[in-house]
């Protein structure tokens, strides 16, 4: 029930973020729907096929399909209103990565995988939908933009396993880990924080 | 038998379309063969790994492999003849998406999935090989070109499930659904029909 | 034991090649780690999900994860030293494709697949990590650069099955096949050898 709920919230957030990027690329209604779908289910699909959960989750649960179609229609109808909120619309994407990181970690735990693998699964679940959306829409993939992105998922995922030493309630742990991801990303974008690059000199010779 | 036949026809159509795009990019013979392969099996591979049919179909049936290699050699030998047909060569791609949409729907039905999921599987089977071909060849992916593409697959797929209320013979249903996809795409390209974009104003501020 | 060893060597080679490309793109430390991971496990992941080995290999064997993290840290610490070796750093990538081709073939043999499929699996295992690295880093994918790349994997893979008529010891066969890949690639880059393109005239009309 708990996971069902946050999974649906993340799905809505990502579907709307997909609609907004696709509309900005002047796609037709079916193109917008496809990008909404890819953004919402891309990360979970990669996670499921790597772990071996097949048919993948969204194919066995029509709730996701209806939620995505509904969110896409909602976002299209209220597009003029959403456009005026453009500056803060990265919020949808940010909420999405927080929720999906937690879902990815849970899938790993259920499959009995190592904590580091669980963090990797969380990060993939959170980032892959957005990366695919951006590649298909010919935008610079989110994980390459200056501000912290995947890093927030990794830190949030690690925080889950660190907090487990002190806190026993799984639901609290998941809520806090998701909030860690969201807060790190919000702070990074608000204050334009980015980690230093490892690049050391100006030469750019190709191999 | 019936599905085997249309699957092979779709494979030939996509393999040849892959050869033509790859040759246009001045790839060497092995590069051309790889792109022919990716175009022909890309969509079916995505479909199979999402549904859980593994090893994926083309790995368990050497017919596909021989057909792809044969089609690639044929297309390379007759490349000068095919080049003069360039203007109408999108036909191969169009026939391919019609046939693959039907194959994808059938896979979904066999796995007992919901009609909407079957339509999604058909669309993915039809579009993913061409999208991968275009990304690897650095072309604008087919689903972004102006004319209707994925939309034809979605409408064709929906027509299958709508017609099922009136028509009982599965083979006829599949033939008609495939033709719906092909006819929509042909008409769209011939008359340069595209759906209106949902974009509403000229501002292009990034979030 | 034997395969475990060459798998780890290939993993180190690809992880370091990923670190070098990512650092050149001025990524932050987590971005560098992610690209190292993708480069090292991308090909094996594609191979495993297509054959149906799930959860994929690297998720069930923490050795790979530790080796990748260790290689990434090593490459970052000694980046100034490695930079001066830039001209010969394609060596890591070359050793990687030789080792991964062999691993891919072995996976196919274990799954009882046809020799041609095994060669395809070897080529995918070897090439897909680097292709994904390059797409994510916005470089021209390795398989499109002028020199022979995938071709070396295909020829090396075919040589395995041809030599099997004369040689019975599997380990020798794998070592020789891996060396064939590496030597072909080294010679091709050293002498700037490439296969002739199949392109025949200067017209570049799009279909």
Automatic annotation (TrEMBL), chains A, B, C:
Membrane topology: Multi-pass membrane protein
UniProt cross-references to InterPro entries, sorted A to Z: Gly_transporter
Broad class of the protein's primary localization: membrane
Residue intervals passing through the bilayer: 6-23, 30-51, 63-82, 89-107, 113-136, 148-166, 172-191
Pfam family, one: Gly_transporter
Compartment list: Cell membrane
Keywords of this entry: Cell membrane, Membrane, Transmembrane, Transmembrane helix
Span of domain Glycine transporter: 5-79, 91-163
UniProt record similarity statement: Belongs to the UPF0126 family.
Name recorded for this polypeptide: Trimeric intracellular cation channel family protein
Organism: Winogradskyella marincola
Lineage summary: Bacteria, Pseudomonadati, Bacteroidota, Flavobacteriia, Flavobacteriales
